[in-house]
Amino acid sequence: MTLFEKIIARQIPADVVFEDDQVLAFRDINPQAPTHVLVVPKKAIPRIGEAGTDDQALLGHLLLRAAEVARRLGLDRTGFRLVINNGSDGGESVPHLHVHVLGGRALAWPPG
Ligand code: AMP
Is the pLDDT of residue 56 over 90? Predict the structure, then answer.
């Protein structure tokens, strides 16, 4: 069971900001911006590179919910960034697909 499956199952506590039948959104434990939330599909897809065509609707839902979370947290006025890390060079540390929602400050580009 991945760390995020344990959070979804409420075996590990998290600061949940949004939930529906397909996704859970909670605050990142090590925030990289004033607002840093992870939006996680309840289905345990390891990473975006391993998602399949069967996951098409879920992936669309995940992005729409990430944007909704950003709106609910007031980030749409100032802007925000969605990030998906894939594999070691991508900076992935938890092998359960998740979208980072980052905002509350101006974010640098390109990323480090
Ligand atoms: P990534 O590096 O893209 O795989 O993102 C994993 C994220 O999960 C990191 O930003 C971590 O800070 C975050 N994280 C790890 N453990 C927890 C936890 N128990 N609750 C909330 N966020 C976590």
Answer: yes
